[in-house]
Batch of 4 targets.
Target 1
Amino acid sequence: MDFLRLPKRTTRTRTYGLTSVADFGVSMGELKNILSDYSHIIDIAKIAIGSAYVTPNLKKKIDLYKEHHITPYCGGTLFEKCYYQNKIPEYLTYLRDLGIEWVEISNGTLDIPLQERLQLVSHLKKDFHVVGEVGSKDPNQEMSISEWVEEIQLFLDAGCDYVLTEGRDSGTAGIYEKCGSIKSDLIQQLIQAIDSKKIIFEAPTSKHQMYFIREVGPNVNLANVKLQDVLALEAQRCGLRSETFYLEEHECQLP
């Protein structure tokens, strides 16, 4: 029964308003239970860090996500490990064998030159959907706001479907200060300069998620969401939490 006036949400299959979860090793049994109830509010599943390489029954997990119309992909750390060991061709074969159609190009741990990453995007977009990640996992490695804007736009121009803003699963690097506070000046510049439908903000905590919902709207793209938090996040998007209570429908739709 629908009787409340709530912010308008995008519906499956979404191109924005995405919720991307981070799977750090949830068991198949637990995952089946979660997806049976909540798959309709999950769009993307990242097999986090490099854990895909040691995940038991990985193909079954990938297939389970796909059965629920959720896009699975491997975390950027696995890409960087393969880059470091000169195993990118083997990595791409590995993804194809798993039936994974999305690949992340990042430099969160390694310092991969920007032009090399852009060349990889141009090459890989022929066979994969590509997500570029901007920002470092090292909280001491700073980028200026203009560098953030330029790099994100370059990735989109090179052919990325989306660009992730680094935030780590702890929310203490990239778009966040070491203490976890949000670099609000950076975020404001990003959403003014770039189509926010093409940016996926890593937002691992409810505090971070509520900030982006208030600043961008309920259809902001959010990543690094914990599987157990997806229903609470959807409630936040719908104005059903104190911090987002007064969101009005006319305020909350991305242009």
Target 2
Amino acid sequence: MGMLEGKVVAVTGAGRGIGREIALLAAAEGASVVVNDLGASESGEGADTGPAGEVVEIIKSKGGKAIVNGADISDPLGAESIIEDALRAFGKIDSVVNNAGVLRDRIFHKMSRSDWEDSIRVNLNGYYYVSKAAALVFKEQGHGNFVHFTSTSGLIGNFGQANYSAAKMGVVGLSNSIALDMQRFGVTSNCIAPFAWSRLTASIPAQTEAEIERVERLKTMSADKIAPLAVFLASDRSKEVSGQIFCVRKNEIFLFSVPRPVRSMHRAEGWTPDSIADELLPAFKPSFHDLARSSDIFAWDPI
């Protein structure tokens, strides 16, 4: 028996890339899969259920069970239809993998309102809509799990991605709150930050030699390396794992820390702007973190 035998899993953005590999592995591990994909471009334009249909046909050809859902997750009714289709076709829903996403990269001072709103609408609001629809079912049945995709662009930083970074850090907060709120109902929620070559990473601008080298490294990181962790987190064997942030980089898996106080300073008479400058700043400054991009932290070649 596979790790997901008898389970029903919904994967958003499952027509291509990481989502496709998760859907295929989930089916291989015994799950019935709702393959959601709007089929839009990396910027969120257009619609084509063809890629999702291809994934479903592959699953069925190997004896598995899967259906296509072509909804836009940023539409609340579309998001709800993913869960409704799972219930209609398979009678239940056990796991949601929030993977769909768009990129609207712009350096911040050139970022338009639509660049900002489109990214938040899909990369954060869409995750909320799908999660909320599933949460109502999970609560009643007393079990369920969420696997949300975040990004090191938010966890660490990157150029030209203020909108994407904000959304992906929002996903971390969403996941943690779900984990806290729904723990009593047997529901878990975790995040994965992936390194993998996909349509989205292919759109990353590379102009300097260092940026070109980074893109070349990304090309060696295939999407299938991400799927095993997602499938594990969607299984019953992960029931003691919740509120965590993982990262997958080829054959490496990382666990990220979360913000916690690192220094404190008390002044009985309270603080003034001058005392902050004269006393607190010198005490705190050694603990300040440097500005960094994801590539600065993950600077070595993966094996």
Target 3
Amino acid sequence: MKEREQILIRASWISIIGNAILSILKMGVGIFAGSLAVLGDGIDSATDVVISIVTLFTARIVSRPPNSNYAYGYEKADSVAAKVLSFVIFFAGMQMLLSTGKSIIFAVPRELPSTIAIYVTLLSIIGKLGLAYYQFRQGKKAGSVMLIANAKNMRNDVIISTGVLCGLFFTFILKMPILDSITGLLISLYIIKSSIDIFMETNVVLMDGVKDTSVYSKIFDAVDRVPGAVNPHRVRSRQLGNLYMISLDIEVDGTLSLNEAHEIGNKVEHNIKETVDVYDIIVHIEPKGKTHHEEKFGVDKNSLSDKLR
């Protein structure tokens, strides 16, 4: 947990400093060069600074140990922060959409941007590529959906800056400053779309679901490898960061002693932990062959097979 906290904090600080430099540079050049697209790109980088501050704050929260109020710990703060990031990105995109849309609709007279806008955009693409790659690697290493969401946002920034560069290029070739505004409009729509994508991705974890349902097949395979354990059912799994909370029922021979049944349950737990990254696991043991009422919750082999068809 300590190592994970350090990864999150270090990645957040690097993101804050890198994006602050790029944001100040792009907004300054955007105003000086008269390019709405570059200015909008700079505003987007400014939101990345806010996003990174959120990730820094969240890194302090997720590392807190469980307590009586939060018995499972604070891991879900990571997903909550990613949800907050989606709103920040959305409002930045809407702001840019309104400003560029207004300049197009009301045909505001524009001059050709200065060529310095091209050079700062090239620099932005290189810088954002480095930041996105670093954030994604650290997010995978720490199992943080928050850092991975931030990396995806920066990847989008690379696409945005590439769009700005293309817009500037054609603006200078065709001598039509309106192309700069149109590029800014398209960029704003892309920003809004990326915010919606991040918002939807975090729903699964916050709704106590799992993104990769193959985890259930791994659980069933782990149970099958334990002699004496049969009929795994009412299997439930949810995510806390990159770890899984798992609970399941298994059946054993009803004539076994409590110690023998308990040992089988321990072997099931051990096998599952060998193939799944587990935060916590509960194995409930039942006597074999008892009639079960239809369960409202959980997954069994039959229901999983139906979903995979």
Target 4
Amino acid sequence: MRSLAVVTAGLSNPSSTRQLGEKIAAAVDSAVTSRGESIEVHFIEARDYAEELASALVNTAAKTPLLDDAKKTLSAADGLIVVSPIFQGSYSGLFKMFFDSLDVESINDMPTIIAATAGSARHSMVLDFALRPLMTFLHAMVMPTGVFQATEDFGTPEGARIDQRITRAAGELANFIVANPDHVEGLSKDFSHNSGRKRKSGVGIDTDDFVPMSDLLN
């Protein structure tokens, strides 16, 4: 079974940011299922880790068990959706805190959909001027289609067009999660290491970097 991580950074509960994440995840689930595979969705709400994030950023030795579990879940996923509310013309501070806490190799080559919510369509360029560069810096494989949803779009023709973008973005992500749309389960190529770059959750000791004592003595 494939795995999909959804990182959202809404502050309220429920939030429009989480709701958009759920909507995109449902579309990805449908697209992957139509390609003959199943997928398990894991939601990572940044607000749930706010205290541990603050501790980790000012004290590298701080104990952050909940955040550590989230990092492991994220790095093990086959695909990623990130959704941030827009504050002061960019992604939220909480959203950035979460990604600042990650190992720089935690989402290497991970197929990713970027999405954002805001009160006005004036902020739509944040997708390409803030979210896309951040994910690219972390070596994620960002899908061509991003999703932006403004409060003023609900119940309008633009709202319908957003649904179309969600469907298109979900299809793009599903094509990477399931490499061949016509394959049967178990025969798809694994894209998680398609450039040879391993992922590191940053939690504990990465066995790939461990050098046996016997090698050190030679």
